[in-house]
C-alpha cells in the first residue's frame, strides 16, 4: 500500500500513522520527524530547517524534496510506504508524481484528515512528546499513566518548540494557503479519502481502515 496522510497541524496524522504502519506493515516517512531528528543532530539540513520550523513556516521545497527522494529509494519502501507531512505544496506533489512515474509505481490513496480549527489548536497546544522515543501524548485526550513520563520507556515528556499558541496559529494559516490546494490536486486524480478526524482516536482509525478496504 502506497499512502499519503494529509491534514492541518494537530489533525492527528502522526497518531493515525502509528496504527496504519502496524496494520499494513509499511514504513512511516514523516518529513517533520526527519527534520526534527536533523535539528537534534545539528546537521546542515537541521540548522537550515530550524529557522523555518520555529516560526511555523515551511522549509523550502528543494530541501524536503531531496530528502524524500532519497528515502523512497530505500529497500524498505519496495512494498509500500506512508508519507506523513509530505507533500505539503503543489510543487512538492508534482515532483513526487514525477519520481513515482520514474520508479514505475503509483499512489493507492491520499487520506485527508478533516478537523475543526478550534480542535486543532487544543490538540497541538496540549500535545507532549517523549524526548527519547518520540511517542505522542495529549495532556487531556491521551495522557500518560504517570504525568510527564513516557509509558513506553520512562522518557521525559516535552512540548514541541512549535506547539505554542502563536506558532500553531501560523502553521494553520500556512496550511490553508500552501497545503490545502493539494486536496483538489488529489481529488482530481481520484485518490482522496476524506476522514472525519474530530472523532476519538479509535473511531478515526476504524474509518481509515474501512476506507482503505
Ligand atoms: P509536522 O511535524 O509534519 O507537523 P504538522 O503537520 O504541523 O502536524 P503535527 O505533527 O503538528 O500534527 P499531527 O497531525 O501529526 O497530529 P498528532 O497526531 O501529533 O511539521 C512540522 C514542521 O516541519 C512544519 O511546520 C514545517 O516547518 C516542517 N515541514 C515538515 N514537512 C514539511 C514539508 N513537506 N515541506 C516543508 N516543510 C515541512 O496529534 C496532535 C495531538 O492531538 C496529540 O497530542 C494527540 O495525542 C492528539 N490527538 C490525535 N488524534 C486525536 C483524536 N482523534 N482525538 C483527540 N486527540 C487526538
Ligand atoms: Zn518514550
TrEMBL record:
<dbReference type="InterPro" id="IPR027417">
    <property type="entry name" value="P-loop_NTPase"/>
</dbReference>
<dbReference type="InterPro" id="IPR006259">
    <property type="entry name" value="Adenyl_kin_sub"/>
</dbReference>
<dbReference type="GO" id="GO:0005524">
    <property type="term" value="F:ATP binding"/>
</dbReference>
<feature type="binding site">
    <location>
        <position position="160"/>
    </location>
    <ligand>
        <name>AMP</name>
    </ligand>
</feature>
<dbReference type="InterPro" id="IPR007862">
    <property type="entry name" value="Adenylate_kinase_lid-dom"/>
</dbReference>
<feature type="binding site">
    <location>
        <position position="36"/>
    </location>
    <ligand>
        <name>AMP</name>
    </ligand>
</feature>
<comment type="subunit">
    <text>Monomer.</text>
</comment>
<keyword id="KW-0862">Zinc</keyword>
<feature type="binding site">
    <location>
        <begin position="10"/>
        <end position="15"/>
    </location>
    <ligand>
        <name>ATP</name>
    </ligand>
</feature>
<keyword id="KW-0067">ATP-binding</keyword>
<feature type="binding site">
    <location>
        <position position="130"/>
    </location>
    <ligand>
        <name>Zn(2+)</name>
    </ligand>
</feature>
<feature type="binding site">
    <location>
        <position position="133"/>
    </location>
    <ligand>
        <name>Zn(2+)</name>
    </ligand>
</feature>
<feature type="binding site">
    <location>
        <position position="127"/>
    </location>
    <ligand>
        <name>ATP</name>
    </ligand>
</feature>
<keyword id="KW-0418">Kinase</keyword>
<dbReference type="Pfam" id="PF00406">
    <property type="entry name" value="ADK"/>
</dbReference>
<keyword id="KW-0547">Nucleotide-binding</keyword>
<feature type="domain" description="Adenylate kinase active site lid">
    <location>
        <begin position="127"/>
        <end position="162"/>
    </location>
</feature>
<keyword id="KW-0808">Transferase</keyword>
<feature type="binding site">
    <location>
        <position position="171"/>
    </location>
    <ligand>
        <name>AMP</name>
    </ligand>
</feature>
<dbReference type="GO" id="GO:0005737">
    <property type="term" value="C:cytoplasm"/>
</dbReference>
<feature type="binding site">
    <location>
        <position position="150"/>
    </location>
    <ligand>
        <name>Zn(2+)</name>
    </ligand>
</feature>
<feature type="binding site">
    <location>
        <begin position="85"/>
        <end position="88"/>
    </location>
    <ligand>
        <name>AMP</name>
    </ligand>
</feature>
<comment type="function">
    <text>Catalyzes the reversible transfer of the terminal phosphate group between ATP and AMP. Plays an important role in cellular energy homeostasis and in adenine nucleotide metabolism.</text>
</comment>
<keyword id="KW-0545">Nucleotide biosynthesis</keyword>
<protein>
    <recommendedName>
        <fullName>Adenylate kinase</fullName>
        <ecNumber>2.7.4.3</ecNumber>
    </recommendedName>
</protein>
<comment type="pathway">
    <text>Purine metabolism; AMP biosynthesis via salvage pathway; AMP from ADP: step 1/1.</text>
</comment>
<feature type="binding site">
    <location>
        <position position="153"/>
    </location>
    <ligand>
        <name>Zn(2+)</name>
    </ligand>
</feature>
<comment type="similarity">
    <text>Belongs to the adenylate kinase family.</text>
</comment>
<dbReference type="GO" id="GO:0008270">
    <property type="term" value="F:zinc ion binding"/>
</dbReference>
<feature type="region of interest" description="LID">
    <location>
        <begin position="126"/>
        <end position="163"/>
    </location>
</feature>
<feature type="binding site">
    <location>
        <position position="199"/>
    </location>
    <ligand>
        <name>ATP</name>
    </ligand>
</feature>
<feature type="binding site">
    <location>
        <begin position="136"/>
        <end position="137"/>
    </location>
    <ligand>
        <name>ATP</name>
    </ligand>
</feature>
<dbReference type="InterPro" id="IPR000850">
    <property type="entry name" value="Adenylat/UMP-CMP_kin"/>
</dbReference>
<dbReference type="Pfam" id="PF05191">
    <property type="entry name" value="ADK_lid"/>
</dbReference>
<keyword id="KW-0479">Metal-binding</keyword>
<dbReference type="GO" id="GO:0044209">
    <property type="term" value="P:AMP salvage"/>
</dbReference>
<dbReference type="InterPro" id="IPR033690">
    <property type="entry name" value="Adenylat_kinase_CS"/>
</dbReference>
<feature type="binding site">
    <location>
        <begin position="57"/>
        <end position="59"/>
    </location>
    <ligand>
        <name>AMP</name>
    </ligand>
</feature>
<feature type="region of interest" description="NMP">
    <location>
        <begin position="30"/>
        <end position="59"/>
    </location>
</feature>
<dbReference type="GO" id="GO:0004017">
    <property type="term" value="F:AMP kinase activity"/>
</dbReference>
<feature type="binding site">
    <location>
        <position position="31"/>
    </location>
    <ligand>
        <name>AMP</name>
    </ligand>
</feature>
<feature type="binding site">
    <location>
        <position position="92"/>
    </location>
    <ligand>
        <name>AMP</name>
    </ligand>
</feature>
Amino acid at each position: 500500500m502506497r499512502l499519503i496522510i494529509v491534514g492541518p497541524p494537530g489533525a492527528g496524522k502522526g497518531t493515525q500513522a502509528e496504527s496504519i504502519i502496524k496494520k499494513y506493515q509499511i514504513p512511516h516517512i514523516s518529513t517533520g520527524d526527519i527534520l526534527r531528528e536533523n535539528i537534534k543532530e545539528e546537521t546542515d539540513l537541521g540548522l537550515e530547517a530550524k529557522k523555518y520550523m520555529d516560526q511555523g513556516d515551511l522549509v523550502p521545497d528543494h530541501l524536503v524534496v531531496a530528502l524524500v527522494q532519497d528515502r523512497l529509494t530505500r529497500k524498505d519502501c519496495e512494498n509500500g510506504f506512508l508519507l506523513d507531512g509530505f507533500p505539503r505544496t503543489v510543487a512538492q506533489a508534482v515532483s513526487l508524481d514525477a519520481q513515482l512515474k520514474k520508479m514505475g509505481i503509483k499512489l493507492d490513496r491520499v487520506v485527508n484528515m478533516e478537523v475543526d480549527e478550534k480542535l486543532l489548536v487544543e490538540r497541538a497546544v496540549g500535545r507532549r512528546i517523549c524526548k527519547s522515543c518520540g511517542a505522542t501524548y495529549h495532556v487531556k485526550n491521551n495522557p500518560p499513566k504517570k504525568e510527564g513520563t513516557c509509558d513506553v520507556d520512562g522518557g521525559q515528556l516535552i512540548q514541541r518548540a512549535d506547539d505554542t499558541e502563536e506558532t500553531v496559529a501560523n502553521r494553520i494559516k500556512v496550511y490553508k494557503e500552501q497545503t490545502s490546494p493539494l486536496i483538489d490536486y488529489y481529488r482530481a486524480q481520484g485518490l482522496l479519502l476524506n476522514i472525519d478526524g474530530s472523532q476519538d482516536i479509535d473511531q478515526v482509525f476504524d474509518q481509515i481502515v474501512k476506507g482503505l478496504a
